[in-house]
């Protein structure tokens, strides 16, 4: 399970927070999808 505080979740949804690789995998696992199904890499950001 991914543990995330409400302020961190809000920042994540607004694009103001970049999760660690470990957190990204935990979130994807919680939704039973690939990491690419949850997050997109912008490249030039």
Tell me about this structure.
This protein is an all-alpha fold and 45 residues long. The protein is built from two helices and no strands. The chain has helices at 6-13, 21-31. It starts with 5 loop residues before the first helix and ends in a 14-residue tail after the last helix.
Kindly name the structural category.
mainly alpha
Helical residues, percent:
40-55%
Q: Largest sheet, if any?
A: none
What is the average per-residue confidence, as pLDDT, rounded to a whole number? 81
The strand count comes to 0
Beta-strand percent range? under 5%
> Could you state the order of secondary-structure elements as H and E?
HH
Give me a quick take on this structure.
The protein is an all-alpha fold and 45 residues long. It has one domain (6-37). The chain is 42% helix and 0% strand.
Which key features would you list for this structure?
mainly alpha, globular, 45 residues
